[in-house]
Design a protein that fits this description.
By secondary structure, this protein is of the alpha+beta class. The chain has one domain (11-148): Cytidine Deaminase, domain 2, CATH 3.40.140. It is built from three helices and seven strands; from the N terminus they run βαββαββαββ. It has helices at 21-33, 74-85, 113-126; strands at residues 11-13, 44-52, 57-61, 91-100, 103-104, 131-135, 140-143. Strands 1, 2, 3, 4, 5, 6 and 7 form a seven-stranded mixed sheet that branches. The longest helix has 14 residues, at 113-126. It is globular and about 50 Å long.
């Protein structure tokens, strides 16, 4: 038997102002996208923003439905729209932000497993790393690639 270890490196920032200008722009777009969330059940409004190759930003927000689990997370809403409208463009980065009662959550919202797998699929499709920004009021986490938040990506087919 061999014991192995997975280590994950990421950067933590204390404010939007500490981010590089492109990351700050993406984070602000994700925060703004929370305003279009439809979350009458959880009251947890999530926004996501995807930067495409060429610089365009595509946004999405979570959309809930009384017939659970018919709703969709912000990250997948943004990524599915980005790929449907721009199938030839790589997704270079994604930012997500969560709010409750119109206030950005203190700690970063993190993507669910399904969203992480979809991120991984688009990263694999493009052959380019997709960075991930998780935005909170008190701190922001930046991961250089999806593998860092889903280390054992399903890619067996």
């Amino acid at each position: 038997m061999t014991v192995k270890e997975i280590k994950i490196a990421y950067a933590e920032y204390g404010s939007l102002e500490q981010l590089e200008p492109q990351d700050r722009e993406l984070a602000k777009a994700a925060i703004e996208a929370t305003k279009s969330s439809y979350a009458p059940y959880s009251h947890f409004n999530v926004g996501a923003a995807v930067r495409l190759e060429g610089g365009e930003i595509v946004c999405g927000s979570n959309q809930e439905n009384a017939a659970f689990p018919s709703g969709l997370c912000a990250e997948r809403t943004a990524m599915f729209y980005a790929n449907a409208a721009n199938p030839e463009k790589a997704m270079l980065s994604i930012a997500l932000a969560g709010c409750q009662n119109g206030i950005l959550c203190e700690t970063p919202a993190t993507p669910c497993g399904a969203c992480r797998q979809v991120m991984a699929q688009y990263q694999t499709k493009s052959g380019k790393d997709m960075s991930v920004l998780m935005v909170g009021r008190e701190k922001i986490w930046k991961f250089d690639r999806v593998d860092d938040i889903l280390p054992l990506i399903f890619d067996s087919i």
